[in-house]
Each structure stands twice: as structure tokens, then as C-alpha cells.
User: Which sequence fits this backbone?
């Protein structure tokens, strides 16, 4: 496990990926520090200062139709977007990976049943399923999290199952069994660490999807309730003023775009790191092989 | 026919090496007793009524071509075959029946009572966990140990297997080790919980010839020091000659011949054993090897004739009438109606 996250000796990300990581870190900091850095409370109205353009004194990104500071609402919106995005990502990964692992490892009728359920689930468009679930469950952050986890776990279960099907036939799985390791020991100590790269890639991309889905739900009015500042909600209400006050919709739109784009780029980058066919992976392997050969030659002249 | 100088027969294959771990006396009840073991995969019969027993401290060689049923036999012993395999017969470990035993009982037996060393050390180790973690895991499966105690025991065992820097090796990932080191780590995993029976499945086949001997000697040395029994599966007659006390020759899923190693090499009775020996190069032999005509058999359904009949020079009509029953003569048991002459 330590080896997986050990980035020493790994190729540095290219500039675009570096930028994506910087964007994500930046948004995360903004989300964490929201109460400290936001110039106004997100819901403070000053009806005297409605629909002021960006650059107005004290309102860097302007104000909305109720005279609320767009920048402050963006900052609090980042909080909601990222925290829900991350919570849903973690829960979805846990549920999906556990289901995929169990399904592939035990196989047989259990696998058949689980995979047919996954088929049915995937037949629904993700967002439509999420909307239906929110409609049933009601509003509020906990309901949104539940709805998003319920609609996206097959996205983890299916690829994890595929990979585990391969790994469980490897000799080290058989070897672990031959030494008395229990099925759960094999699943969580041997198979899980071996599929970590896949899980990381899926998670990074899932984060983007979650944020987009949350924005979409908020846009449709199915999100967090009207007074909560969310990017999707701001986009939605800004839509009515887009001809006269472009900044209401533009800034949340750009924020959503940046975060989703960044998480996808980071996901691609992680995949490249672990993909043996990617060019810099090959170069690194070669270097490691040479180093190993040299070390072995030095350490073990007789064997 | 083999002894080069007529007097010394310490090495029946004629390669001048010492045999480690050979103890002449194997008193007491057998450690493992396999009787009438059969394994089927669908229509294919991999093993048909194989019987043998191994005592404490004994090295029992199992030789045969690919597909002769060596690995299927070994895996049936510890219940490692896929669920599609149909197993019949009996495997008794110290009198306890293992065929049909509960999964929990088998898990307990694996590693702690019967150790299994795999052929390919590169693939038998988990690539993303350190050697130390994998060794300690085996200890933890069979009774809890602290990480420190576990690593200490692992280091001791690696030192016993002549690994120069055990502490560094424990921290290494499999890809950081050479082939010989990896194979020793796999051996350590099989030995660390102190099993009394070790099944070594083609342990050296994936290794360089120069490393093979060393690794094999280390494995058998540690087993001998602990008085463990060893089932040594190989297709290499030279390995058997140098290491085993008794040998079973498998062909087509049956034990064609079982004998002590000297009898087998000096005085093979089953034509297949004889043919196998004649196809092997020997020191001092200028002659031509005699290959066995035809190719190895795959048995479908029940075996109804001697599986070697189609390739055998001594074949007669009665060979195809049924599988020859085991015939015991001296220390040798063979299944053949027209055996080679007894030259002893």
C-alpha cells in the first residue's frame, strides 16, 4: 500500500495536469477556509445593491438579483460542491468496490445475480436515476448523498469485478489460499491492494461526475433548498438574467467546468501512471530494472 | 546397469552429488496416506485411483510428464482444486480424513500442517505487498502473533534459507528480488507456520539451472532439520535421483510404479519407467537417448486399459482388457502385466 502512494521517482505531471491539481487544491482550500475568506455572508442581502457588475466596490464578482455577493456565494458553493462530491465519491467507492469484489471472488449464482442488477442499473441514465431518487427521498444534503451513491455504485462494481476476475486466477491468490488465508483475507489484503490503481482512477473521475450531478440537481431545483448557495442553483437563477447580467451564470459555470475538467484530467493522469503501456511508465520500468540488476549483481554474486 | 564403478550406488542417476536430507529409517505411522484418490474435471480424468503414503522425514518424489496428474494429486490433498473438480477416494493426514473436510478445517490445515510451495515464485508472491507482510500474514492466519515477533521469526527463517540480509529482504517487494531469492521467499511462506508435510510443486522448474540445486538443497535441508515429510513433484528424474527416498512414477493419472529410488533407477519394472530412464542423458553414456514414441495421453471418462498401452513396446492384447491391478514385488509396486525383467 505504501508503495502505491509513494510518488518518489515517478514522472512529474505535465503542465496541464499540474494546473489541474493546482485548481483542485485551490478550490479545496477555498472550501475549507470559506468563513475566513468570504467577504460577506453568503445570504446577506442588500437590496440597494442589486445586480451590480463585477468590480463594484466590495463586490469583486458583482451581486445577484437580491443583492447578495456572488463571490461569497461561490466560495460557500465550493464548500457544498466539494464536500458532497468527496463524500459521495468515498461512499460510492466503498459500496461499489465491496460489491464488485464479492461478486467476482465468489462467482457463480451470486455473481450472476449481482451483475444482472448492475445491468439493470446501468440501463437507466445516471442523472435520471438520481433525479428520480431525490424526488422520492426529498431534499437535503443527506438525501442527495444517498441518491447519488445509490445511482452510481455500479460504475465501481462493474470494472472492479472485471479486474478481480483476472486477479483471482493469479498464482498468488492460489498461493495465499494454499497457506490458509481466508476468502476475506484474500479479498481485502491481496486483491484490494492490487486493484487500488483502478479504484483511484475511477474515484477521480467519479468526483467530477458527482459535482456535475449535484450542480444539475441544484439547477433543476432538486438540490439543497433554495437558500443554500450552490453552483448549480446560482447557475439556474442566473439564467433569467443572462442577457443583462452575465456574471450571475458565468462564474458558477466556469467553476463547475474547472473542477470537473480538473478531476477528469487527474484521473487520466493516475491511469497513465499505472498503465504499463504508457510511455513514461515503460521508461521508468526500464530504469528500475537496470537498477535492480545492478543491485542484485552486487548483493548476490553466487545466486 | 547404472552403477559406474560397480560398488558405489549412492547416486543412481550417476551425477556425482550428495543427497541431502536422506534418513534411512522412517518408523511410525504415515504422515499422509493417499488411497484410491481420483480427480475428474468434467469428462477428463486427471487422476485415477492413486495411492501412496509419506512418512515423517521422508522425501517422496512424484515424477511424470505434463498432464500425468502430478499437480492435480497434490492440490487434491489440500483441497485446492476448483469446485468443478470431482474428487473421490481418501486422503488421511495423521489418520484424519481431508477429502470432504469442512472449509474451515482445510484452511487450518493449509500452511500450518501442510505447506505448499508453488512452481513460479514470481507469480506466487503478491506484487504489491512486502515479503515481510506476506510471511507475517501466514503466521497471523494460524494464530495471532505481534508484528514484531512475526517479523523476527520470518527473519530467522530467511537466514536459515541462507538469505544474506533477511531484514532488508523482509522490507522488499517481490519485484525487487532475484529469482532465487523470490523462490526462497515462497519456500519461507510455506515453512513459516511449521507444517509437518511440505508439498513442493515443481519448485525449481522456473529457476536457472545453477540456482535450482541450491534452492532445492535449502528446502530439503530445512525440512530434514524439522523432520517434515516432503512430497516433491517434478518432471526431472535427476532431481528425484538426488533427493528422494521413494518415488512414484505417474502416467495417465495412475501410479505406474512406486519404488524406493535405488530400485527404480537400477531395476525399473514398469515399461514406462524404463522408457523414461532410457530417454534421460546420463554421465558416461555415449549412446543415443531413446525417446518414447507417441505423446502423453489424456484420459476421458473411466480408464479401461493400461494408459501406456499405445506407446508401449511390450504391449499385448490383455493390456487393453483393463487397467492392470497394482502388483507388489519386493519394495516395488507396479501396474503392468508384462513388466521388465527383474535384474536385482
Assistant:
Amino acid at each position: 500500500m505504501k508503495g502505491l502512494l509513494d510518488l518518489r521517482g515517478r514522472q512529474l505531471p505535465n503542465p496541464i495536469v499540474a494546473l489541474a491539481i493546482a485548481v483542485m487544491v485551490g478550490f479545496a482550500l477555498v472550501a475549507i477556509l470559506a468563513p475566513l475568506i468570504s467577504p460577506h455572508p453568503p445570504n446577506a442581502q442588500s437590496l440597494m445593491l442589486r445586480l451590480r457588475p463585477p468590480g463594484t466596490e466590495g463586490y469583486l464578482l458583482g451581486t445577484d438579483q437580491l443583492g447578495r455577493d456572488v463571490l461569497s456565494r461561490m466560495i460557500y458553493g465550493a464548500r457544498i460542491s466539494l464536500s458532497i462530491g468527496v463524500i459521495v465519491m468515498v461512499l460510492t467507492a466503498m459500496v461499489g468496490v465491496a460489491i464488485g469484489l464479492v461478486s467476482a471472488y465468489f462467482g457463480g449464482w451470486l455473481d450472476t445475480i449481482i451483475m444482472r442488477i448492475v445491468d439493470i442499473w446501468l440501463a437507466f441514465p445516471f442523472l435520471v436515476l438520481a433525479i428520480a431518487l431525490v424526488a422520492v427521498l426529498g431534499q437535503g444534503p443527506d438525501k442527495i448523498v444517498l441518491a447519488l451513491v445509490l445511482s452510481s455504485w455500479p460504475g465501481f462494481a462493474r470494472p472492479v469485478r472485471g479486474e478481480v476476475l483476472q486477479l483471482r486466477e493469479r498464482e498468488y491468490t492460489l498461493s495465499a489460499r494454499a497457506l490458509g488465508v481466508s476468502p476475506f483475507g484474500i479479498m481485502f489484503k491481496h486483491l484490494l491492494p492490487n486493484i487500488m490503481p483502478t479504484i483511484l482512477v475511477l474515484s477521480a473521475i467519479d468526483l467530477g461526475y458527482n459535482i456535475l450531478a449535484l450542480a444539475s440537481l441544484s439547477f433543476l431545483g432538486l438540490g439543497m433548498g433554495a437558500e443554500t448557495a450552490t453552483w448549480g442553483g446560482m447557475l439556474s437563477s442566473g439564467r433569467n438574467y443572462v442577457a443583462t447580467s452575465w456574471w450571475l451564470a458565468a462564474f458558477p459555470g466556469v467553476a463547475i467546468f474547472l473542477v470537473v475538467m480538473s478531476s477528469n484530467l487527474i484521473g487520466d493522469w493516475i491511469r497513465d501512471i499505472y498503465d504499463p503501456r504508457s510511455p513514461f511508465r515503460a521508461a521508468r520500468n526500464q530504469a528500475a530494472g537496470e537498477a535492480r540488476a545492478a543491485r542484485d549483481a552486487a548483493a548476490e554474486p553466487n545466486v | 546397469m547404472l552403477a559406474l564403478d560397480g560398488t558405489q550406488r549412492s547416486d543412481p542417476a550417476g551425477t556425482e552429488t550428495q543427497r541431502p536430507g536422506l534418513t534411512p529409517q522412517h518408523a511410525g505411522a504415515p504422515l499422509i496416506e493417499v488411497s484410491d484418490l481420483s480427480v475428474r474435471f468434467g469428462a477428463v480424468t486427471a487422476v485415477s485411483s492413486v495411492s501412496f503414503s509419506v512418512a515423517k522425514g521422508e522425501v517422496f518424489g512424484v515424477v511424470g510428464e505434463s498432464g500425468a496428474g502430478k499437480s492435480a494429486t497434490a492440490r487434491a490433498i489440500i483441497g485446492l482444486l476448483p469446485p468443478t473438480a470431482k474428487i473421490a477416494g481418501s486422503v488421511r493426514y495423521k489418520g484424519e480424513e481431508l477429502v470432504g473436510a469442512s472449509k474451515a478445517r482445510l484452511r487450518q490445515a493449509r500452511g500450518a500442517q501442510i505447506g505448499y510451495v508453488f512452481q513460479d515464485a514470481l507469480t506466487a508472491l503478491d506484487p504489491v505487498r512486502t515479503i515481510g507482510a506476506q510471511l507475517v500474514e501466514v503466521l497471523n492466519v494460524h494464530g495471532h502473533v505481534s508484528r514484531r515477533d512475526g517479523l523476527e521469526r520470518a527473519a530467522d527463517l530467511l537466514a536459515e534459507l541462507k538469505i544474506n540480509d533477511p531484514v532488508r529482504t523482509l522490507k522488499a517487494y517481490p519485484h525487487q528480488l532475484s529469482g532465487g531469492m523470490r523462490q526462497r521467499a515462497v519456500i519461507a511462506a510455506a515453512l513459516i507456520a511449521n507444517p509437518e508435510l511440505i508439498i513442493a510443486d515443481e519448485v525449481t522448474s522456473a529457476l536457472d539451472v545453477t540456482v535450482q540445486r541450491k534452492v532445492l538443497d535449502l528446502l530439503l535441508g530445512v525440512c530434514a532439520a524439522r523432520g517434515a515429510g516432503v512430497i516433491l513433484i517434478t518432471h526431472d528424474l535427476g532431481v528425484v535421483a538426488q533427493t528422494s527416498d521413494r518415488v512414484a512414477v505417474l502416467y495417465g493419472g495412475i501410479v505406474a510404479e512406486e519404488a524406493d529410488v535405488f530400485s527404480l533407477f537400477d531395476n525399473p519394472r514398469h515399461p514406462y519407467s524404463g522408457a523414461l530412464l532410457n530417454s534421460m542423458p546420463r554421465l558416461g553414456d555415449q549412446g543415443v537417448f531413446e525417446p518414447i514414441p507417441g505423446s502423453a495421453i489424456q484420459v476421458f471418462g473411466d480408464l479401461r486399459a493400461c494408459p501406456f498401452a499405445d506407446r508401449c513396446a511390450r504391449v499385448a492384447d490383455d493390456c487393453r482388457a483393463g487397467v492392470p491391478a497394482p502388483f507388489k514385488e519386493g519394495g516395488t509396486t507396479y501396474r503392468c502385466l508384462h513388466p521388465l525383467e527383474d535384474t536385482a
Notes: Chain B touches chain A through 39 residues (CB under 8 Å). The radius of gyration of chain B is 20 Å. The first helix of chain B runs from residue 70 to 77. Confidence is low (pLDDT under 50) at residues 1-11, 13-27 of chain B.
